[in-house]
């Protein structure tokens, strides 16, 4: 059975059929999903979804939302982590990190929110789910200074050296839809060559669609959608299986065990 280590089930793209999305995922063999928060306004939403569907969640402030977040949002995050610290479905602090790809974001502000959330993760002894986009070295700099209990570098797309640095700090690396594109040479090579204990699977649904769902800009402008969903995970996993020479059952077992190693509270939910 598969574990989707990163899915935004609360996203508005799922408002019309969220229960069906979960049902399709379970029928496809995806029996556990991790729902990370992105800002204060969805802390309660991801928690309630996790409890409603027997899933798990993380609480944090995404770097893309730091522009509109306030210091009080960090206070509320601390309060939520304290209030739900004994909730077995709360498995991480996330989605947090740095994004140096999207223009208009204040790097210093992002770093302050990131460092504060790492301190909270350390205090509450929770792993972290990291957003990594053109920011691996800066993320690693803070992780070396603030020792957290590992976690997952979501949608990893860095160098061999950066991958090894995350692994040495106790992190697993997330692979999803991008893996399915033949032109994703670096990602596919990492997925093939990394230690098997470093790999976890994710969809990031509704985002990062695999190649069979991808739509061009012209198609999207014409109204064609490319919504990803967690039921696609086994087919993404098949791509990893082919790269590694594994069976699909091996791929599910290895990557799900790796998610549990990264997010230890998941083991009790299995």
TrEMBL record:
InterPro entries per the UniProt record, alphabetical: Metal_Hydrolase (IPR032466), TatD-like (IPR001130)
Spans through the membrane: none
Binding-site positions, a divalent metal cation 1: 6, 8, 95, 204
Keyword flag Hydrolase: yes
Sorted UniProt keywords: Hydrolase, Metal-binding
Pfam families to which the protein is assigned, alphabetical: TatD_DNase
Chain sites annotated for binding a divalent metal cation 2: 131, 154
Top-rank taxon, per record: Bacteria
PANTHER family named among the record's database cross-references: D-AMINOACYL-TRNA DEACYLASE
Name of the protein: TatD DNase family protein
Organism of derivation: Roseateles toxinivorans
